[in-house]
Design brief:
Structural class: alpha/beta
CATH class of the largest domain: Alpha Beta
CATH superfamily of the largest domain: ATPase, nucleotide binding domain
CATH architecture of the largest domain: 2-Layer Sandwich
Bound molecules: 5'-O-[(R)-(carboxyoxy)(hydroxy)phosphoryl]adenosine, zinc ion
Strand order of the largest sheet: 3-2-1-4-5
Oligomer: single chain
Helix content: 40-55%
Length: 364
């Protein structure tokens, strides 16, 4: 079965064709990062306009790639992200998908972006042919918009057991980089600086930034256990105070302090994620840890979670770097396993900007 997947939830215009949920035949990602860089973050209006401008080209390239791989091939369904994400950005992909599905006479499959990130380890992966073999799994979705610990019973049956109570991990990286004058997006640059420091010094000399365990009462407001939640607001404030105390970001830059600060800040995020993951693993017997989302590209996140998985004697399923950020392959891939949600009246589906993992805003 060949599914065309479309993704426009944030700042990537992306389309891909995936065979039987795992074999990626084409995968085109147009990144808008340079357009948002001057603003230090994603501007919804700019994102939406750029999606409108690029979606046709991206779809055409994805289809060309598909025909090159499968001459005379046929698309059996169109899948699209309908949430979570920026409403004006999601609308562009959803409308394109509706038009395509209708004109091709194939089903439209609406996909949850967070769940799709957790499918990425199975793309182009011969080890796990059936994601069902990894379930029940502890899913960890770490991106610019989400930080969720999810009990995955099977595809379509999820329960969020932990989350961030304020910023997502990627957002925490992005905001720190902004404070430090390191540009946007912050994750990759912080990762690179931190890696340099850690390779030379290990964890010696790191600034002890707070690790963001929320107070019990605060987590309880979301019906969650504080031991499975993170909060990065205290960490951000600590960094802000540190920068002010040291005389400003420029002074720190001149003193060559950026690698140490990046490593210290990153370590606080990574250790809090590792600690909550250990707590989540105590809840029950999982068969695997599934890691997805843009922050899963972070070398220290991967290394530390691998240690956590080894301690628990579980496999850590991670995706190839090209599938960590937003892409259409994860949408098309997950759609194959979730095609039961295809509705006859799929044309009525609306975008769902605040969609959570395991949530659906429509019934088939
Ligand atoms: O999954 P994604 O592409 O988009 C969302 O769904 O949000 O994630 C983007 C986020 C950004 O916040 C970016 O800074 C972060 O992922 N990111 C990283 C790294 N690469 C991207 N964070 C830490 N280390 C990285 N190497
Ligand atoms: Zn994403």
């Amino acid at each position: 079965m060949h599914i065309l997947g479309i993704e426009t939830s944030c700042d990537e215009t992306a389309a891909a064709v995936v065979k039987d949920g795992r074999e990626v035949l084409s995968n085109i990602v147009y990144s808008q990062i340079p357009l948002h860089q001057p603003y230090g973050g994603v501007v919804p209006e700019v994102a939406s306009r750029a999606h409108v401008e690029k979606i046709g080209e991206v779809l055409e390239s994805a289809m060309r790639g598909f025909f090159a791989a499968k001459p005379g091939g046929k698309i059996d369904a169109v899948a699209v992200t309908y949430g979570a994400g920026l409403s004006p950005a999601l609308l562009v992909g959803l409308n394109a998908a509706k038009g395509l599905a209708k004109s091709l006479g194939v089903p439209l499959i609406a996909i949850n972006h967070i769940e799709a990130h957790l499918h990425t380890p199975f793309l182009d992966n011969d080890e796990f042919r059936d994601p069902g073999e990894a379930m029940p799994a502890l899913g960890l979705a770490v991106s610019g918009g989400h930080t969720n610990w999810i009990e995955m019973e099977e595809y379509g049956r999820y329960r969020i057991i932990g989350q961030t109570l304020d910023d997502a991990a990627g957002e925490a990286f992005d905001k720190a980089a902004k404070m430090l004058g390191l540009g946007y997006p912050g994750g990759p640059v912080m990762d690179k600086l931190a890696r340099g420091y850690l390779e030379a010094n290990g964890t010696e000399g790191l600034v002890p930034f707070p690790q963001g365990r929320p107070r019990d009462g605060v987590a309880a407001l979301s019906g969650l256990d504080a031991g499975l939640c993170v909060s990065f607001s205290g960490l951000k404030t600590a960094l802000l105070r540190y920068i002010a105390r040291e005389g400003g970001a420029e002074k720190l830059q001149d003193a060559g302090e950026m690698p140490r600060i990046a490593a210290s800040y990153q370590e606080a995020i990574v250790l809090s994620i590792a600690d909550r993951t250990r707590n989540a693993l105590r809840r029950r017997n999982f068969r695997a840890i599934i890691l997805g989302g843009g922050v899963s590209l972070n070398s220290r996140v991967r290394e530390t979670l691998k240690k956590v998985a080894d301690e628990a004697r579980l496999p850590l399923l991670t995706s190839k770097p090209k599938y960590c950020g937003d892409n259409g392959a994860m949408i098309a891939g997950l759609a194959y396993f979730r095609r039961n949600i295809t509705g006859a009246d799929a044309m009525n589906i609306d975008v769902a900007p605040s969609l959570e993992a395991g949530e659906e805003t429509w019934q088939c």
